[in-house]
């Protein structure tokens, strides 16, 4: 192994793992902004909702089924929040992104304060579930299994999103709605349902990323702002 790779191998893997987690979060933001042209600054607080859901349902040392339950519940919450955000921002569709940013940022601040009231201002730690809490040897170095799982999930999601958006009739419908909503309306498709569906998927990815990121970041006040900035960069 080259000396530079031996020195930086773990850092490279960490970069891939954190990058994959941020990709899962950011792809939802990209879908909503890139395809629906809505700047959703409440995306970070959805991540925080997922992290708190993991701690609330599974605790500090979750079993595998508790972690899976947290993923399912957080996903359902994300879908509900996404649909709600879709209808909330509907009236701002023809206004500037600044109006969208002010509305969604205001909602995010309210939600973040509510989470602090419910879960206190403590930092809650969540460990990976059994079976994913160990390490494996890679090129003579030990690396956590859970972070390798994040890398794999990021790669699978990237391929799935590309396939759905570019290769399926559903993706074509979404792209058509963005390009010419009046034409979509003329063939009998309710563009509001398409928009709500994209919002729901984007929010679901955000809350799911929150659960998956809980063993990495924990659940704490201020995490929503941190991950939102990183997601915007991504």
Count the E strands. Answer: 2
Q: Please give the share of residues in helix.
A: over 70%
**What's the number of helices?**
9
Unreliable residue stretches: none
**Biggest sheet architecture:** 2 strands, antiparallel
Class by SSE composition: mainly alpha
Question: Strand portion, in percent?
Answer: under 5%
In N-to-C order, the SSE pattern is: HHHHEEHHHHH
Please list the strands of the largest sheet in the order they lie side by side. Answer: 1-2
The average pLDDT score comes to 86
What general form does the structure show?
globular
Distance between termini?
31 Å
Rounded radius of gyration (Å): 19 Å
How would you portray this structure in words?
- This protein has nine helices and two strands; from the N terminus they run H-H-H-H-E-E-H-H-H-H-H.
- The chain has helices spanning 3-36, 43-58, 64-89, 97-119, 145-167, 169-179, 181-186, 191-217, 223-233, and strands spanning 135-138, 141-144.
- It has a two-stranded antiparallel sheet with strand order 1-2.
- Helix 1 (3-36) runs antiparallel to helix 8 (191-217), helix 1 (3-36) packs across helix 9 (223-233) and helix 2 (43-58) packs across helix 8.
- The longest helix has 34 residues, at 3-36.
- The two termini are 31 Å apart.
């Amino acid at each position: 192994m080259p000396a530079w790779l031996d020195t930086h191998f773990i850092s490279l893997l960490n970069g891939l793992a954190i990058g994959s987690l941020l990709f899962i979060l950011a792809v939802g933001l990209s879908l909503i902004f890139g395809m629906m042209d809505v700047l959703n600054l409440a995306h970070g607080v959805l991540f925080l909702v997922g992290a708190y859901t993991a701690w609330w349902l599974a605790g500090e040392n979750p079993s595998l089924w508790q972690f899976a339950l947290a993923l399912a519940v957080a996903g359902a919450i994300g879908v509900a929040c996404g649909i709600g955000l879709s209808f909330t921002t509907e009236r701002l569709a023809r206004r500037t992104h600044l109006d969208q940013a002010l509305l969604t940022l205001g909602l995010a601040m309210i939600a973040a304060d509510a989470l602090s009231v419910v879960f206190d201002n403590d930092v809650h730690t969540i460990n990976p579930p059994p079976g994913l809490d160990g390490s494996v040897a890679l090129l003579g170095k030990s690396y956590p299994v859970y972070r390798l799982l994040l890398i794999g999930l990021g790669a699978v999601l990237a391929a799935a999103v590309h396939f759905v958006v570019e290769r399926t009739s559903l993706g074509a419908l979404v792209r058509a709605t963005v390009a010419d909503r009046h034409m979509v309306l003329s063939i009998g498709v309710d563009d509001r349902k398409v928009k709500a569906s994209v919002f729901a998927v984007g929010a679901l990815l955000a809350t799911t990323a929150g659960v998956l990121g809980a063993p990495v970041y924990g659940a704490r006040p201020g995490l929503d702002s941190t991950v939102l900035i990183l997601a915007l960069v991504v």
